[in-house]
Amino acid sequence: MDMYILSIILASVAIFPLVLKMFSPYFWDDFFYLMNLVWVFVKFGKRRRRKPLFLVLDRYFEHTSNHPDKAFIVFEDKSFSFRDADEKSNKIANALQKYTELKEGDTVALYMGNEPAFIFTWLALEKLGCPVALLNNNIKSKSLLHCFSCCGAKVLIAAAELQGAVEDVLPSLREQGVSVFMMSKECSSHGMESLMDKAEEAEDSPISPSRREHLTSKSPAVYIYTSGTTGLPKAAVITQDRLLAALVVLASNRVTLDDIIYVNLPLYHAAGFLIGFIGSIETGSTIILRRKFSASQFWEDCRKHKVTVIQYIGEVLRYLCNTPKANNDRDHKVRVAFGNGVRTEVWREFLNRFGNIQIREFYGATEGNVAFVNYTGKIGAVGRVNYFHRKLFPYALIQYDTESEEPVRDHRGLCIEAAKGETGLLVSRITKIAPFVGYARNDQQTEKKRLRDVFQKGDLYFNSGDLLRIDHQNFIYFQDRVGDTFRWKGENVATTEVSDVLAMADCIQEANMYGVKVPGHEGRIGMAAITLKSGAEFDTIGVFSQVSSYLPAYAWPRFLRIQDSLEVTGTFKQMKVKLVEEGFSPDAVPDPLYFLDDKEKRYVPMTQEIYNSIESKRR
């Protein structure tokens, strides 16, 4: 009898994994994700309780002390160790102390592209206890001034190649009493000073911790800009607490000290800065830093530097898939890719072509209070519903009316949760664990992101502005964005900002910007309906000059349609739904259509030939 019972027990143990896989195929994925979640909270909690306040900077100091000669940044065949970065940042910090009146808590705007000086300068400012506004190095003119002003910065530090853009707004900056430094050895422009020469002459002695002794967990650490329905970028406030939480993103996905991380996404972006840079400070990994993404050089860089971890946005993987196939496509050491926005078909193609790379697709807004990560590898999903995650960060998908652009409410005035399989607006409860800090100097836009009376009177949720769907297996899928912002080439394009720039052209009376789908491309590309001033003719060269002078390339409207008048609602909101549906087909649009020709640097009449080349992905 004992042998019989033992046999049953052994048989049960043997078949248990098979039964588990049949009825709960993601059990172990969910289990290990939960363990990671517990690890993150324990680690974060310990650091949160440390006195004095534990900063990201302190984690960097730990690596500098433990392995000072390990490569921290590799850039264009130059390598900088943790000790090198520490000394260079000390020099910049000491120079700023000598030549400015910066105090703890004073904001400094950083207007630079991807280069080691960006990281050295950020470390220097963190040592001085100064929050840093990360300005998009593509913006200029009105947008640059707006971004600078809304963070209240007292100092602007800009890359040498951006001197022209700074000079354009220098009179306004001088009126505000702003100190302007160029990251160069000399600067002849009146009202601007060079910084690199001053830093080279400065001592590399450590900065006293007293410079940051009054910082709290709620003190602003970084301002990262995000476009919204207002049309101009908003400065999302990243507190010291939020920055501390960002430390664990890579580590919680098993990235270690031995990994080499390829960072080619902009450091002014949340993905490049918070995940690529800050995440690497936690793990102590080496960063291979590139000025900008290059599809043709991507895998050569990965092979040359033995990269193991890469970052992406949806377009990055598509660009890589569109490069000519080569025999050495799988000859690399990349094992994991972090990012968001990759389309299902591109995901599959990428894995088939470049090998068994773990795709860690995630969802999260810069200013948001909830995030998801696809820890199972399920193609197309951005995450998975997990009971404990949902308890810690209460979120829901609610029914949303895309016509009225408002959540659907019942007779009690409360929101209605979307059913499984139904697309809904993601909202997340605002709590102490999941706060929503909002935008710097912009109470109006901060309040717009707060949604009240969601499931009971008086409750308060963060409105993500994103439409998601949860399937019957509890996988979460991103569907679309709501409002006036659309995404192109990994950047958020604010329609109002583009419309305002178009309306500044001499021949244009009014403009209505929106995004349209283009075959083979992720996101939406810019298109605008415009009306002309009385008696004016469309200036194909002048309008191109207007948009290229005031807007980054990803925000240029690629298609224009000229109308007699723009349709508006009863509350004078511009109508976009019909325009989006009609797209840019000459057969579907009765109005004159134009296409932005990069080579001719002008708008040219949209022909059936051009349309066919776009549809067939030849343009």
Please tag this protein with its features.
alpha/beta, 619 residues, 35% helix, Rossmann fold, 30 strands, eight-stranded mixed β-sheet, Luciferase, domain 3, GMP Synthetase, Chain A, domain 3
Describe this structure in words.
It is a multi-pass membrane protein. Pfam families: AMP-binding. By secondary structure, the chain is α/β, with parallel strands linked by helices. Among the domains are: 75-239, Rossmann fold; 385-481, Luciferase, domain 3 (Roll); 485-615, GMP Synthetase, Chain A, domain 3, CATH 3.30.300.30. 35% of the residues lie in helices and 23% in strands. It contains 20 helices and 30 strands. The protein has an 8-stranded mixed β-sheet with strand order 2-1-11-10-12-13-14-15. The chain has a 7-stranded mixed β-sheet with strand order 7-6-5-3-4-8-9, with helices on both faces. Helix 7 (163-175) links the parallel strand 5 (155-159) and strand 6 (179-183). Helix 4 (82-99) crosses helix 5 and helix 6 crosses helix 7 (163-175). The longest helix has 22 residues, at 2-23. The N and C termini lie far apart (76 Å). The mean pLDDT is 91.
